[in-house]
Specification:
By secondary structure, the protein is mainly alpha-helical. Helices cover 79% and strands 0% of the residues. The longest helix is centred in the middle third of the chain and has 31 residues, at 14-44. The protein is rod-shaped, with a radius of gyration of 18 Å. It starts with a helix and ends in a 6-residue tail after the last helix.
């Protein structure tokens, strides 16, 4: 049974690696989207230090945008006929 690392280092199929990476990124995007919603709702209730919560929401939104960027980038790579 080979692992993902063995497949990559032994010259494995790049298209299969892209499929795995795309799936993992999709899970991260879904998880982070719900985390941002939950955090924003909690911070919106208000407190003395709610500004800290809004900073965290901004950081999470930045990561969400970054992961979407890479998800779209991997999708474009997946359409590359040279990898198939």
């Amino acid at each position: 049974m080979s692992t993902l690392n063995d497949s990559i280092t032994a010259g494995g199929d790049p298209a299969s690696y892209l499929q795995i990476a795309k799936g993992m990124l999709q899970l991260k995007i879904i998880w982070l989207g719900f985390a941002v919603i939950g955090l924003a709702l909690s911070v919106a209730e208000g407190s003395e230090y709610s500004w800290i919560g809004w900073v965290l929401v901004a950081v999470f939104v930045a990561f969400h945008a970054l992961w979407w960027y890479w998800r779209l980038r991997i999708t474009n790579l997946d359409d590359n006929p040279a990898l198939n």
